[in-house]
Design brief:
- Strand 20 (290-294) and strand 21 (297-302) form a beta hairpin.
- This protein folds into four domains: 10-26 and 182-324, Molybdenum Cofactor Biosythetic Enzyme, Chain A (3-Layer(aba) Sandwich), CATH 3.40.980.10; 27-50 and 147-181, Alpha-Beta Complex (Molybdopterin biosynthesis moea protein, domain 2); 55-143, Molybdopterin biosynthesis moea protein, domain 3 (Molybdopterin biosynthesis moeA protein, domain 3, Beta Complex), CATH 2.170.190; 334-401, MoeA, C-terminal, domain IV (Beta-clip, Beta Barrel).
- Helix 3 packs parallel to helix 6.
- It has 402 residues and is of the alpha+beta class.
- 18% of the residues lie in helices and 29% in strands.
């Protein structure tokens, strides 16, 4: 066995990860229907006014506002009906004093009109006239040209996250594409002679690959473009070849082979191709996590046990990947509830303990580092600091939700 040379506190691991982030610089163009969730690489200035014409904000009648002075239900103003205007159609008539035009919501305001009276404040005594029952002021129920966005206004800035509303703003000014930062390519593979692809026959002594799929799901959910690869065998030669095959990626993530057994050879492969930044963190689960650079490309060596692997992916990989992708920090939802059962914790190791929420109580869900159900049947986790050895039943705890 080869013991860890040292383990570092969680906060020191986070500090080293933060120092190693080099945000993605590569840019590409994304069609608008695929742009949501991407980060803007170049700001956009509107080439047009939005709306591009004055338009009605109501179904009603376009009038000259002064014609409605003193109008009421007892003494309505009576106007001559000139036209009916629907969306997508410009009127050829000019509304002058004593006249009006029926207009639909969103339709262009006709020349001469300066207000719209909503239909509820009108009546049609005949086909040629309209009665107005309420005074209107100039500009009432009218969306002015450029009232939302004026030509030359900044629509989005570089670094903005394209939310649905920002995608809508780009569409409003006629953009069919946006220049965005590329999603970091994340090469992902598991290591181990015992790892088999799901769907293949399972020989004795083998297990199906879990971590490649959980890590790919994490990467896709947090701005990465996962590139999954088949498992690598437990030899230094195979692991070095796998590192070489991942050379074009922006981030490399291996699982397994980073502990202290004689066949945990990722450390040796890193020594052949890169520089180890840390190997071993004082956390539970996930102590064997490693971080390195391989010819300048950041590398995570995640534990082979599925719970340890996925837990540290949430805690360490997600913040690093989001920073690499230029995404804002992830802010998971938390709840405060009482703990349903006493939990003992290893001293000097910061513990992430999975829990399930049942009737407003956090029930311990952790079974073991090798049990994926420790996470799949959990709703979140609580943190137990390294200097705390026990959390008593009934203690109010903060649950970070998955």
């Amino acid at each position: 066995m080869r013991p860890f040379a040292s383990t570092i506190p969680l906060e020191e691991a986070r500090r080293r990860l933060d120092a190693a982030v080099r945000p993605i610089a590569r840019v590409e163009r994304a069609r608008l229907e695929e742009a949501a969730g991407r980060v803007v690489a170049a700001g956009v200035v509107s080439p047009i006014d939005v709306p591009p014409f004055a338009r009605s904000a109501m179904d009603g009648y376009a009038i000259v506002a002064s014609d409605s002075r003193g109008a009421s239900r007892e003494t309505p103003a009576r106007l001559r009906l000139l036209d009916r205007i629907f969306t997508g159609r410009l009127s050829t008539r000019t509304v002058a004093a004593g006249a009006c035009a029926e207009i639909a919501t969103g339709a262009p305001l006709p020349a001469g009109a300066d207000a719209v009276v909503m239909v509820e404040d009108t009546a049609r005594p005949n086909e040629r006239e309209v009665e107005i029952f309420a005074e209107a002021r100039a500009g009432q129920n009218v969306g002015r040209r450029g009232g939302d966005i004026a030509a030359g206004d900044r629509v989005i800035d570089a670094g903005d996250l394209l939310t649905p509303s920002r995608v809508g703003a780009l569409a409003a000014v006629g953009c069919a594409e946006a220049e965005v930062f590329a999603r970091p390519r994340v090469a992902i593979l598991s290591t181990g002679n015992e790892v088999i692809e799901p769907g293949e026959p399972l020989p004795p002594g083998h297990i199906y690959d879990v971590n490649r799929f959980t890590l790919a799901a994490i990467a896709a959910a947090h701005g990465g473009a996962p590139e999954s690869r088949r498992a690598a065998e437990d030899t230094v030669e195979a692991l070095v070849a796998a590192l070489d095959a991942c050379a074009a990626a922006d981030l490399i993530v291996f699982s397994g082979g980073s502990s202290v057994g004689e066949r945990d050879l990722v450390v040796d492969a890193i020594a052949a191709r890169g520089e180890m930044i840390f190997h071993g963190i004082a956390v539970r689960p996930g102590k064997p996590t490693a971080f390195a650079t391989v010819r300048g490309t950041p590398f995570f060596g995640m534990p082979g046990n599925p719970t340890s692997c996925l837990s540290n992916a949430y805690i360490l990989l997600v913040p690093f990947l989001r920073a690499l992708a230029r995404l804002p920090p992830h802010t998971p939802r938390t709840v405060r509830v009482p703990l349903g059962r006493r939990i003992a914790s290893a001293v000097n190791r910061h513990q992430f303990y999975t829990v399930a929420l049942r009737d407003g109580v956090a029930q311990p869900a952790f079974k073991g580092s090798g049990d994926i159900t420790s996470l799949s049947r959990a709703d979140g986790y609580i943190e137990i600091p390294a200097d705390q050895s026990v959390v008593e039943e009934g203690t109010t705890v903060t649950v970070t939700l998955f």
